[in-house]
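Forwarding the complex inputs:
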Amino acid sequence: SAVISQKPSRDICQRGTSLTIQCQVDSQVTMMFWYRQQPGQSLTLIATANQGSEATYESGFVIDKFPISRPNLTFSTLTVSNMSPEDSSIYLCSVTTGEDRFFGPGTRLTVL
Amino acid sequence: QKEVEQDPGPLSVPEGAIVSLNCTYSNSAFQYFMWYRQYSRKGPELLMYTYSSGNKEDGRFTAQVDKSSKYISLFIRDSQPSDSATYLCAMSVTGNQFYFGTGTSLTVIP
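Prediction (whole assembly, two chains):
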C-alpha cells in the first residue's frame, strides 16, 4: 500500500489566480496521477506524472492550465492556473503499486 | 456511451440489511475490477479488487464479476452505519488506465 498526503486540504481562491497543490507519498513510485472529482461525475484523470519526464495530459487538459512538476519519486505538484469558477472541484493525487491504485485525501478547491 | 455506468443513488437502508451495488460496462477487454469506498471529505480507498470473472469475499463484502453480462456487483452483508459512504467502481484493461463509475451514495440508518 501507499500513504499519500496532500496540501492544502482545501482552499478558496479568487478568479484569475493560481493554486499549487502538493502531493507527498511515503514510498518511491514510478507514476503519479492527478485526478479531478466533480459532483455527480466520475473521477477524471488530468495527467500522469513520471519522474524525470514531462507529464502526459489527457484529452481536454493542457499543460498551460495544469502545469505539473515531478522532481523526485515521492513528490509531485499540480498547479491550477488562471482559475475560474468551473475549476471548483476536488483534486486528487494517486499512485499505483502493482495493480492497485491509491488516492490521497484530496484538495477541495472553491473558486469565487 | 460511457465506459462505466453506475447508479448514483442515493441508497438508504436500515442497519443489518444486505446492500447490493452495481456497475455495468461496455468494454469487454476490462480485466481488472475494483471497488473503492469514499467517506465524506476523504479520498477513495480501495475496498475490493478482482481480476477477471468470479467472486471474491472479504468479511462482510463480496465482489462479483460477470463478464458475459458486463456487470459487476458489490454486496455488503449486515450493513453498519460505518458503511455509509460513496462507493465507486473502477475497471481497467491493463492495470494502468482506470475507468471509474460516478459513485453510489449509501446511507445505513441505525
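Residues 54 and 65 of chain B are 5 Å apart (CA to CA).
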